[in-house]
Amino acid sequence: MAMLNPPHPGETIRELCLEPLGLTVTDAAKGLGVTRKTFSELLNGHSGISTEMALRLSLAFGGSAESWLLQQTLYDLAQTKKKFQPLNIQRFEAANQNAVMG
């Protein structure tokens, strides 16, 4: 079950990757091959993990690129759910669910 309010992945990177290794934002950005500004925006929640950044994080800190992207997706989904207003959404259902799900 997904967390209702997962932290932005930047918080996770700061707490689980930078702090334990004693890395500065500048050193980590250099090691990842990105600008300090780009990395700082991610850490501070002003940008998200792209597919490219997910590969960089995977190679630098471990974990799969997919797991980094999943963190971002769960965060984004939680943010969207907070502000989503189901205005006039029609639910569509197949007469035979197996036709869709099978």
Give a short summary of the structure.
The chain has 102 residues and is mainly alpha-helical. 63% of the residues lie in helices and 0% in strands.
Describe the protein in words.
- This protein is mainly α.
- The protein has a single domain (9-83), classed as lambda repressor-like DNA-binding domains (434 Repressor (Amino-terminal Domain), Orthogonal Bundle).
- Helix content is 63%, strand content 0%.
- It has helices at residues 9-21, 25-32, 36-43, 51-61, 65-83, 97-101.
- The longest helix is centred in the last third of the chain and has 19 residues, at 65-83.
How would you summarize the topology of this molecule?
Elements: H1 9-21, H2 25-32, H3 36-43, H4 51-61, H5 65-83, H6 97-101
Helix pairs in contact: 2-3, 4-5
What descriptors fit this protein?
434 Repressor (Amino-terminal Domain), 102 residues, mainly alpha, 6 helices, single chain, elongated
Number of strands: 0
Task: Tell me which oligomeric state these chains represent.
Answer: single chain
The secondary-structure class comes to mainly alpha
CATH topology heading: 434 Repressor (Amino-terminal Domain)
CA(first)-CA(last) distance: 24 Å
What's the CATH class, please?
Mainly Alpha
Roughly how many Å is the radius of gyration? 18 Å
Q: What's the name of the CATH homologous superfamily?
A: lambda repressor-like DNA-binding domains
- CATH architecture level-2 label: Orthogonal Bundle
User: If helices are DSSP runs of H or I spanning 4 or more residues, what is the number of helices?
Assistant: 6
Instruction: Tell me, rounded to a whole number, the average pLDDT.
Output: 91
